[in-house]
């Protein structure tokens, strides 16, 4: 069944790969990004070229996840053009790398805004339409770092992704009776096919970084990057994340998996989340809210 889909942060990485794959699977896909006539003009043009060359319904959409006004306008445009919205994919995110102490509180707030608050802006714009329809799907791109192995020097990013994952879990329960389904995609480390590492931010407090470099953590950043890259298999392909997302979207309503792990490094997140999600589910059964574990079929 053809779905109308919006993806945040779709100028590159997992977002763009998923947009291409979903469009080729026959869906109407809005690949959203900020600056479609500015910083991401080339990416927006490439989206249109891909759509034309592959004869698919893929469209670049101006959407700045940092602005509620921009998000509202983008969602309103989709509904005006299509009459509905079936799938919202929360993908926008940003990574930073460095000793946690050297990041300012303002940097952490900015990272939290991009990785967590952005999902709230999009939900507040899109969920009224999905609730009105009595049917929909939220796809959240989480991270294995939320429960698996967590190398140092990535604390702000890991904290933000853990916050987003926690939001996804609770939203799933609060939307189940509206007939809105949730799938959380949990990628592991991919050092190719995304811009996470290439475009990752750095601490603003250079003096604190220098203290770490002059002390017992001299050269530690490079050591982490080298060790991290070494455990990623040579054949790890970021497009496997996009393929998993297509399988989720194409699955029958009510049968979609709550979590999907795509983790070439096998960092243990699948085991940990298996326990965590089971404990959470058992608590809902215990207090009589087991119906929140599956989306209600409305109408």
TrEMBL record:
Report the Pfam families cross-referenced here. Answer: adh_short
This protein is called: SDR family oxidoreductase
Organism annotation: Bradyrhizobium jicamae
């Amino acid at each position: 069944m053809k779905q109308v889909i919006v993806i945040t942060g779709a100028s590159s990485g997992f977002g763009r790969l998923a947009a291409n794959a979903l469009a080729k699977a026959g869906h109407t896909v809005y690949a959203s990004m900020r600056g479609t006539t500015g910083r991401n003009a080339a990416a927006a043009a490439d989206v249109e070229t891909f759509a034309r060359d592959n004869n698919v319904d893929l469209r670049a959409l101006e959407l700045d996840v940092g602005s509620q006004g921009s998000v509202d306008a983008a969602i309103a445009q989709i509904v005006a053009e299509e009459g509905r919205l079936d799938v919202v994919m929360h993908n926008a995110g940003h990574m930073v790398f460095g000793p946690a102490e050297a990041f300012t509180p303002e940097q952490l707030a900015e990272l939290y805004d991009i990785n967590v608050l952005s999902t709230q802006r999009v939900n507040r714009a899109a969920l009224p339409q999905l609730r009105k329809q009595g049917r929909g799907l939220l796809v959240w791109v989480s991270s294995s770092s939320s429960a698996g192995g967590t190398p140092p020097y990535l604390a702000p990013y890991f904290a933000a992704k853990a916050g987003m994952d926690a939001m996804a879990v609770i939203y799933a329960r609060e939307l189940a009776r509206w007939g809105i389904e949730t799938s959380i995609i949990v990628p592991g480390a991919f050092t190719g096919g995304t811009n996470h590492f290439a475009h990752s931010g750095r601490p603003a407090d250079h003096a604190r970084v220098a203290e770490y470099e002059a002390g017992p953590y001299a050269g530690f950043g490079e050591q982490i990057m080298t060790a991290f890259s070494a455990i990623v298999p040579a054949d790890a392909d970021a497009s496997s994340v996009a393929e998993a997302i297509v399988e989720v979207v194409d699955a029958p309503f009510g049968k979609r998996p709550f979590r999907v792990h795509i983790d070439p490094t096998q960092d243990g997140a699948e085991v940990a989340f298996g326990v965590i999600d089971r404990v959470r589910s058992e608590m809902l059964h215990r207090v009589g809210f087991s119906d929140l574990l599956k989306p209600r079929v409305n109408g």
